[in-house]
Specification:
Elements lengths: L8 E3 L5 E3 L2 E3 L11 H12 L3 E3 L7 H13 L9 E6 L6 H15 L4 E6 L4 E2 L16 E2 L3 H13 L3 E7 L3 H8 L10 E5 L7 H9 L3 E5 L22 H10 L3 H10 L4 E2 L6 H6 L10
Helix pairs in contact: 1-2, 3-4, 7-8
Length: about 290
């Protein structure tokens, strides 16, 4: 079937659903011009995207929220049509900080709830006024975390109606098991957002999540960020891969569309980030979905 605004969602274990393709909204706050996320989200919604992936850490949730509210106000969508994913940052793991963090996101978005709220990482940083606490040597100051206690605070947020669904990100099998085997578990994680693309398919974690009815949300579906501080730039970018390029030529698609379809056919939700209107449009309408 064609990927349309009306027909590209898959079910979650809590009886909600998640659109298979979303727009990632991360942009370096130091180099991204103001208004970029705002304009990109509006283009995405007009194109047919209904899934927007954001985070407090991106420092642009005010722009994302404004774009969503304006597209609701002009009649393009209703609030229930939009699926917004927010994230609990590492400095807010203590249970007493979880709800305030989510409420801060909601206040910034000017929305009553998020559709999915996820633990961004299984590691915690020292709580405080800075999101990246460092010692005198410039090293990150970590904080002891109890993922089960954090999860219980998230469950309370869901029960309060602040989040429709709960999930995690960057969790491995052991960390997922901590939550799934927690005594008195009320709401299981419905998703695990991890890096996932043709160069990094994560087959073991993919299968474990499938067996436990946890949807994989693949970030960087078009390849890892080319940050020279941690990526070997001698390795070719994913979108220049010879096989992907040849497949794109064969089927008259872009290499990005081929890479996205690879994951979509596996039932992996993809959230390609782009602030380029042409790419935003290309990444959505021409992907054909196979039956799962």
């Amino acid at each position: 079937m064609d990927l349309t605004a009306e027909s590209h969602s898959i079910p979650l274990s809590d009886r909600n659903s998640i659109p298979l393709i979303g727009l990632g909204t991360y942009g370096d706050p130091h180099t991204t011009p103001k208004g970029t996320a705002y304009e990109s989200v509006k283009v995405a919604i007009d194109t047919g995207y209904r899934h927007i992936d954001g985070a407090l850490l991106y420092f642009n949730e005010h722009e994302v929220g404004q774009a969503i509210r304006e597209k609701i106000a002009d009649g393009t969508v209703k609030r229930e049509d939009i699926f917004y994913c927010g994230k609990l940052w590492n400095t807010f793991h203590p249970p007493e900080l979880v709800r305030p963090a989510l409420e801060k996101t909601l206040k910034t978005l000017k929305l009553d709830y998020v559709d999915l709220y996820i633990v961004e990482m299984p590691t915690a940083f020292k709580p405080g006024d800075t999101l990246y606490p460092r010692d005198e040597n410039g090293k990150i100051i970590y904080h002891k975390t109890d993922l089960c206690a954090t999860w219980e605070a998230l469950e309370a947020c869901k029960d309060a109606g602040l989040a429709k669904s709960l999930g995690v990100s960057n969790f491995n099998k052991r960390q997922l098991e901590l939550i799934l085997n927690k005594p008195g578990l009320k709401h299981k994680p419905v998703s695990n957002q991890i890096e996932c693309h043709p160069y990094f398919t994560q087959p073991k974690l993919f299968e474990y999540c499938r067996q436990n009815d946890i949807v994989i949300v693949g970030y960087s579906p078009l390849g890892t960020s080319r940050d020279p501080s941690w990526v070997n730039l001698k390795c070719p970018p994913l979108l220049e891969d010879e096989l992907l390029v040849s497949l794109a030529k064969k089927y008259n698609k872009t290499t990005a569309q081929v890479a996205l379809r690879f994951n979509v056919q596996r039932g992996v939700v993809v959230i390609p980030k782009s602030f380029n209107p042409v790419h935003i449009r290309e990444n959505f309408p021409d992907i054909q979905l196979l039956s799962f």
